[in-house]
Amino acid sequence: MNNPPVTTRWVDVNSSDGSFGAYLALPPAGRGPGLLLLQEIFGVNAHIRGVAEQYALAGFVVIAPDLFWRQGERIELGYEGDDRQRANQLLATIQNEAVVRDMQATLATLRARPECSGKAGAIGYCMGGRLAYTAAALCGVDAAVAYYGGRIQNQLDLAEQINCPIQFHYGDNDDHIPPSAIESVREAVVDKDAEIHVYPGAQHGFNCWARASYSPASAALAHGRSLAFLAQQLF
To answer: Which residues are annotated as catalytic?
Structure first.
């Protein structure tokens, strides 16, 4: 029986606040540039693990930290009903300073792994999109990709601290992120090495195949752009 091209496992990350888990996906070659994958408010669930494997298959060493570890270990939620309500409650308890420390600790763990060939980027979705933007400013990543990051428009002061290439993806029919928010981000990064892509008709969460808002065409186009961008910056 053939071995799977991508190997995965949970690993421990040690930080000043304690130890927490992270989902690691290794590429077929066994080595590659690092990629910090930042979750939605639904945890490191099946979709985020699938995204980790998707990017690992493309050659990246991917690590997705469990950012809700203080509230409960390996919380996994769906997208509707009680799960959505709990996800929003968890979001309300997140402390930005603590999450920045978690991202920094995860990046240190990633870069110290023998499989990581040097450079490391960040990619995130929804809450994770905002955190990828934050990582670009505060965590020393070599590139960042932010998918429909909510509330970035409330943290535009961080844009001054971004010194790496960054790429943004938005849907133009996103009921969480109005066009005015996208334009404010565009203005804030006008002097940076930044790309902003807006997908006609796409809704919030358009990349997630497990959500009703999934848009295969927009997701495929955004994924291709993300891969090309990360390959150019990290390999």
So the answer is: 126, 174, 204
**Superfamily for 7-234?**
Alpha/Beta hydrolase fold, catalytic domain (3.40.50.1820)
Q: Looking at the whole model, is its pTM more than 0.85?
A: yes
- Residue 33 · residue 121 · CB < 8 Å: yes
Maximum distance among all Cα pairs of the chain, rounded to whole angstroms: 53
Nearest CA to 133 among 91, 162, 160? Answer: 162
Q: What pLDDT is stored for residue 1 in this prediction? A: 58
- Tell which residue, 78, 230, 75, 100, has the closest CA to residue 167: 230
Cα–Cα dist 193/153, whole Å: 18
Alpha helices in the chain (DSSP H): 46-57, 81-93, 96-112, 127-138, 179-188, 216-234
Query: Model confidence over 150-205: pLDDT tens digits?
Result: 899 999 999 999 999 999 999 999 999 999 999 999 999 999 999 999 999 999 99
